[in-house]
């Protein structure tokens, strides 16, 4: 658990306990002669070796290559061991006087001691344990105070001088010198000079410093491996350092044990979903199970093929692949299911396959129809169908989808059949207990042989608990503290003192709350003004803005080639962009990975290291907001370009505001080649249209005369002659995505005409309600119930939560959304006509369940109409 209680502190010169617990004396060995006579001490170090003095080994009648015996008098049962004196680290008694004995077996009850550096320990109390003949056979303690290092003989031979060493006597040769403040061995007792004829020097001893020990035997150096994972997800290789998530792991493994065909694991960003699967679940799969893991991306089938599912992509040939064995039905040929069956057929000993699709939300980030943005890609639809096919098959396979929970409504909208196939959904536990957090903080350090300053783990735990507890129980915090905690611990490790994690380092990195800001500021301080401007653009362009209101902004991977164009503007400076990308990647703000989605040579793709950066970095949110309009335009332009290439319809070229914005963005940002070429083609088309328009100018006087005499109605706004009150509402499709787009617009309060257009007409009342109630409702809404005006949502309410139920479900009281509706609808169940869909919605702050509530939106007679709280009309 690490050092976090007073019993482990240095009190009255007592040393800290070694990592295995107990007194360090347990780790001290007696070096024995062949006649079982002790001749000195040694101490157990990592790797199953004992370090001692060379002169002790010589006194035992041995030398390099010889086997000798030793015992651990303070360990339970006084275990004995044998070992071989290694020739490599041997330093003769007249030189540095060092020997390393490699044991044939390490007693299980004996912990290893860690070797640190003597530098910086001057003046601190030290502790030792040896076997002088004048005391008990099982040894006794000695104390002293560390002095400075002394050069011996004018060469590179150094000794550590110990003061106040009266209790360190003969028989301590080879004993460890332990810094009582850190619990680390900073030297090995080598010599006692003794008093001169005037009895001076009685309290002086000398030790070989830890620097010399580690130089002679490099295995004593602490492993330069960080047990914390920064913003990166834990993988199977990091399973030894993955702690504190047993509740979630057992929950997922329990579902897999029943061999469910499909499973959806969801949780908020930063809750550790990927780490749980990679480092917790996969290493614990039952015998006979194999796993294939892919990350959802633009071409999931290509990713599956790279992961080992050959021919997973759709193709014209749906026949069986040669040598693949008999397959039938939809599993034939090139499909995900066919690839799964071929994989199982050639994998001897595999009883069940777990197919993991991580970051599944990436498949759902293309906007849905009705938002003024591209429709769902055909490939996305095909992949969702293919995954549904696998889940519904009889093959011995389980599909595990790992997804952010704020994408659940989008999955329900786009792939309801797949969602039904993977229910019930497994939710990540939303909180962590203090015990789980303590394991996350201390257990990786213990495994990596790291030590904490006294009470530092408790200090970190206290700050995490106070910073992450909002609406949780007193002993719990939100699980979303994990990324920031891992970043803090990683920075603490990077600023460690040897293998000690210190308060000084913790303060230096900004502690738990400020570590992220200090890290970000430190990265940007490495750049000059020009490079900082490019960095801001790079980071902003790696944010995907969710324009549907269904979820928070997310990371957006972009190719390095695109960033070179977009981030430096028209004045191309690719060298600056590459330098910025290198710095951001080195400091782990971004990651750059290869992508061969096209099937060709891999091309580098950059993305933010974690969504937490968007949530916790206010500057990044401000930078990305300035690029949101450009981002939307670019997506729209590329979609139009793709459509135009297929249709060659001039109506698909950019026109009006789209064209004007494109010219602005080209001068401000620079554009990717496909977008720039499409913009230029659109400009040429507009010039041709203007030439044609100029040729028709001679007809203008005649047109004006006809209009003045009333022969032609030019539809002057405000006259009512050409104004349709429902025109604005009818511009939104009568689908769930159309309703969502309309409500986002109305919530912002920027279109008063839109709200006005939602007023029902007489025909609308007749189409929605039964005849008797229709007349009453019309009178009520026209006289006593005006529609809400202004912005429907507060500025901070950026999320839209929406439910829908058919009038048939309202009448029968069935359907999953009915319970969410206001209770007044139950009183009005017989007043509705069948076959309609009613929407109820809320504007909320991100992550909050409550907000501004509205209801009664219905698509009728080709447009949207609003009937808020219709049950109130029954009392009118």
UniProtKB/TrEMBL annotation:
InterPro entries: nSTAND1 (IPR049052), P-loop_NTPase (IPR027417), Peptidase_S1_PA (IPR009003)
Gene Ontology MF term list: peptidase activity
GO biological process: proteolysis
Residue segments, region Disordered: 1-25, 311-331
UniProt domain Novel STAND NTPase: residue ranges: 227-648
Stretches with biased composition (Acidic residues): 1-10
Keyword field: Hydrolase, Protease
The keyword Protease is assigned to this record: yes
Protein name (Swiss-Prot/TrEMBL): Serine protease
């Amino acid at each position: 658990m690490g050092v976090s209680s007073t019993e482990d502190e240095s009190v009255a010169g007592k040393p800290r306990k070694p990592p295995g617990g107990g007194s360090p004396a347990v780790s001290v060995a007696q070096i024995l002669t062949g006649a079982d006579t002790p001749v000195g001490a040694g101490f157990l170090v990592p790797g199953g070796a004992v370090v001692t003095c060379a002169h002790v080994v010589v006194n035992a009648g041995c030398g390099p290559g010889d086997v000798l015996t030793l015992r651990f008098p303070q360990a339970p049962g006084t275990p004995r061991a044998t070992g071989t004196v290694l020739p490599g680290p041997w330093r003769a008694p007249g030189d540095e006087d060092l020997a390393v004995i490699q044991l044939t077996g390490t007693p299980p009850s004996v912990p290893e001691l860690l070797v640190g550096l003597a530098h910086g320990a001057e003046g601190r109390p030290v502790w030792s344990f040896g076997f002088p003949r004048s005391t008990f056979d099982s040894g006794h303690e000695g104390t002293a105070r560390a002095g400075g290092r002394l050069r011996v003989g004018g060469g590179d031979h150094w000794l550590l001088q110990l003061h106040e060493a009266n209790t360190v006597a003969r028989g301590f040769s080879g004993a460890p010198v332990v810094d009582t403040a850190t619990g680390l061995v900073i030297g090995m007792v080598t010599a006692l000079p003794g008093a001169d004829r005037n009895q001076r020097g009685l309290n002086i001893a000398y030790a070989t410093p830890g620097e010399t020990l580690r130089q002679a035997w490099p295995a004593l150096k602490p492993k330069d491996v960080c047990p914390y994972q920064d913003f990166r997800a834990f993988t199977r290789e990091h399973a030894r350092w993955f702690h504190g998530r047993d509740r979630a792991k057992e929950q997922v493994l329990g579902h897999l044990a029943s061999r469910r065909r499909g499973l959806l694991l969801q949780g908020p960003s930063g809750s550790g979903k990927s780490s749980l699967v990679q480092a917790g679940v996969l290493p614990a799969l039952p015998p006979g199970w194999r796993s294939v893991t892919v990350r959802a991306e633009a071409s999931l089938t290509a990713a599956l093929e790279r992961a080992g599912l050959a021919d997973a992509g759709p193709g014209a040939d749906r026949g069986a692949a040669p040598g693949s064995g008999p397959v039938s039905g939809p599993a034939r040929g090139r499909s995900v299911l066919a690839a799964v069956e071929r994989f199982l057929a050639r994998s001897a000993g595999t009883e069940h396959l777990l197919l993991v699709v991580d970051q599944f939300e990436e498949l759902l980030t293309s906007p849905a129809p009705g938002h003024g943005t591209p429709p769902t890609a055909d490939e996305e639809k095909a992949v969702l169908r293919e995954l549904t096919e696998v889940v519904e098959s009889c093959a011995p396979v389980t599909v595990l989808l790992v997804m952010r929970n704020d994408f659940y409504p989008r999955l329900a909208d786009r792939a309801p059949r797949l969602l039904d196939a993977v229910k019930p959904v497994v939710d990540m536990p939303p909180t962590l207990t203090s015990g789980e957090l303590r394991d996350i903080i201390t257990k990786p350090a213990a495994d990596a042989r790291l030590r904490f300053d006294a009470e530092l783990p408790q200090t970190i735990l206290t700050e995490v608990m106070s910073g992450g507890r909002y609406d949780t129980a007193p002993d719990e915090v939100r699980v979303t503290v994990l990324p920031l905690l891992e970043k803090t611990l990683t920075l603490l490790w990077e600023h460690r003192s040897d293998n000690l994690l210190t308060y000084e380092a913790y303060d230096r990195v900004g502690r738990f709350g400020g570590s992220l800001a200090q890290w970000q500021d430190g990265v940007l301080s490495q750049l000059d003004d020009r490079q900082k401007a490019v960095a801001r653009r790079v980071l902003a362009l790696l944010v995907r803005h969710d324009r549907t209101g269904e979820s928070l902004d997310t990371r957006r991977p972009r190719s390095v080639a695109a960033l070179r164009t977009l981030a430096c503007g028209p004045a191309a400076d690719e060298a600056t962009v590459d330098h910025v990308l290198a710095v951001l990647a080195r400091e782990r703000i971004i990651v750059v990975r290869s992508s061969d989605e096209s099937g060709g040579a891999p091309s580098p793709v950059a993305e933010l290291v974690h969504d937490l950066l968007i949530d916790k970095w206010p500057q990044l949110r401000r930078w990305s907001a300035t690029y949101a309009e450009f981002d939307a335009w670019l997506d729209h332009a590329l979609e139009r370009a793709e459509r135009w290439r297929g249709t060659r319809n001039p109506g698909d070229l950019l026109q009006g505001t789209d064209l004007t914005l494109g010219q602005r963005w080209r001068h401000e940002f620079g554009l990717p080649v496909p977008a720039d070429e499409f913009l230029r083609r659109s400009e040429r088309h507009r010039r041709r249209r203007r030439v044609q328009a100029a040729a028709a100018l001679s007809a203008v006087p005649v047109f004006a005369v006809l209009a003045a005499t009333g022969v032609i109605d030019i539809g002057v706004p405000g006259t009512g002659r050409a104004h349709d009150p429902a025109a604005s509402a009818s511009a939104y499709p009568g689908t769930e995505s159309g309703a969502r787009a309309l409500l986002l617009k109305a919530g912002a309060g920027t279109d008063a005409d839109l709200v006005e257009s939602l007023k029902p007409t007489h025909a609308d009342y007749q189409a929605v309600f039964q005849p008797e109630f229709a007349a009453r409702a019309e009178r009520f809404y026209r006289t006593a119930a005006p529609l809400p005006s202004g912005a429907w949502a507060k500025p901070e309410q950026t999320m839209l939560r929406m439910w829908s139920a058919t009038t048939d479900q309202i009448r029968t009281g069935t359907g999953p959304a009915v319970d969410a509706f206001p209770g007044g609808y139950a009183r009005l169940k017989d007043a509705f006509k069948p076959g309609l869909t009613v929407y109820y919605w809320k504007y909320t702050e991100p992550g909050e369940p409550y907000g501004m509530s509205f209801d009664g939106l219905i698509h009728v007679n080709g447009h949207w109409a609003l009937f808020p709280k219709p049950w109130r009309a029954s009392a009118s």
